[in-house]
């Protein structure tokens, strides 16, 4: 017999000789059942280790000098595209009047004719028309106003659009262009009358500074008069019997890129089920009015929201790329596996007649509306100082997985041994009772 090792007395797992072991049928069944249970629970632990969860965080937004994209699709069934103007401004002093870059105006048929889309090749009525076949030496008159800086020929107004810009620069009302040679040559007033009963849909996106600001849709050319932002409303109110109004439907309005559906569902597992409507509550909103002097105001609170998938650190943040190098529609959204920087928002709305009066129709007789203002649809947005981060993470670490497996194996075998012992003792007692 070999000499005993010094570790023998430390052995906590004492053994029995083979002849002293008793094997039973019930023990075999318990053993097989426990092995199957161990396999099932081990697989569950593995699946739980591989599961990805989303952990929301709330932090102070420390971003500086960032941009923000606003994507929209809004229909105005009673305002023609020629009258509709989109202006953007913010508290930093940046004013972008007549924004068109990244935005399309789609002419719509009269709502009584179904409101279908008209060929968008006729989108711009007068751009470049009438100036293409003029004498190279021709220099159109600006009718007392200074020539616009973007004129095709310096110091001249060769098109109707350039005369309108010249008038806007000195805050003059333009009207239908009667008596203006360029506009008569381009048949501006005739084209305007042809579109009187049409509607317009604005679709596309704009990129703005991520600061407090507003954008609005209003009739007529916009210009600044002192410290006031005003519009030439002559063609809107003098509409030859056509009843214009700013009834509108917001098909879609979002700030930043849209989250993919799989990401929305994954985030929505925390609490209530989400959809993109929870991020964009103004989608499919419709407002109607029969009054010309009427405006709608939406006060929007924008909250920065980031989605960080697993491994996003390897690709970095999309906001690290200068915005000038990112095409419109791609700001905040990188390739697969990179972070998504977008925004969600809450909104309150207000509407009023520019003629003043109380809000009895809305059930608030005590509320009085101020007189005056610009008809249109106004969106005033404020930026929240907080930022929501939805970060992907593993449900548990690898060490947690190993601990779980050990607990499954040890716990199952312990319970199985207790059950086997109970069955064996019970069988022995029943056997003694029958033998006696």
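^ structure tokens above, recovered residues below v
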């Amino acid at each position: 017999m070999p000499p005993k090792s010094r570790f023998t007395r430390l052995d906590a797992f004492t053994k029995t000789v083979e002849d002293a072991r008793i094997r039973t049928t019930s023990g075999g069944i318990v053993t097989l059942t426990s092995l199957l249970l161990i396999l099932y629970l081990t697989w569950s632990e593995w699946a739980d280790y591989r599961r990805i969860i989303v952990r929301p965080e709330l932090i102070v937004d420390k971003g500086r000098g960032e941009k923000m994209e606003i994507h929209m699709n809004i229909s105005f069934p009673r305002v023609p595209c020629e009258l509709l103007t989109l202006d953007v401004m913010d508290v930093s002093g940046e004013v972008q009047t007549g924004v068109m870059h990244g935005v399309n105006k789609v002419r719509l048929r009269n709502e009584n004719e179904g409101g279908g889309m008209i060929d968008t090749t006729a989108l711009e009525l007068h751009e470049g028309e009438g100036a293409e076949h003029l004498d190279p030496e021709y220099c159109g008159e600006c009718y007392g106003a200074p020539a616009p800086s973007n004129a095709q020929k310096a110091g001249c107004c060769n098109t109707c659009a350039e005369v309108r810009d010249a008038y806007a620069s000195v805050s003059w009302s333009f009207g239908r262009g009667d008596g203006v040679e360029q506009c008569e040559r381009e048949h501006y007033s005739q084209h305007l009358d042809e579109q009187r009963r049409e509607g317009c849909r604005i679709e596309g996106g704009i990129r703005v500074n991520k600061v407090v600001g507003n954008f609005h849709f209003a009739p007529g050319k916009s210009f600044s008069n002192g410290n006031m932002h005003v519009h030439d409303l002559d063609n809107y109110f003098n509409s030859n019997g056509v009843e214009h109004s700013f009834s509108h439907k917001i098909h879609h309005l979002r700030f930043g890129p849209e989250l993919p559906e799989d990401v929305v569902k994954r985030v929505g597992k925390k609490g209530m089920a989400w959809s993109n409507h929870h991020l964009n509550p103004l989608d499919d909103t419709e407002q109607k009015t029969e009054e010309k002097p009427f405006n709608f105001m939406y006060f929007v609170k924008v909250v920065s929201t980031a989605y960080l998938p697993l491994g996003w650190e390897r690709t970095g943040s999309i906001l690290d790329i200068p915005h000038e190098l990112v095409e419109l529609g791609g700001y905040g959204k990188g390739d697969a596996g990179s972070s998504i920087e977008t925004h969600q928002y809450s909104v309150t709305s207000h509407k009023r007649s520019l003629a003043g009066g109380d809000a009895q129709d809305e059930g608030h007789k005590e509320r009085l509306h101020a007189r005056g203002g610009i008809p249109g649809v106004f969106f005033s947005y404020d930026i929240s100082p907080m930022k929501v981060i939805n970060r992907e993470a593993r449900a548990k670490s690898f060490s947690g997985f190993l601990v779980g497996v050990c607990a499954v194996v040890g716990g199952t075998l312990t319970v199985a041994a207790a059950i086997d012992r109970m069955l064996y003792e019970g069988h022995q007692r029943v056997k003694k009772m029958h033998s006696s």
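The chain is about 25% helix and 30% strand.
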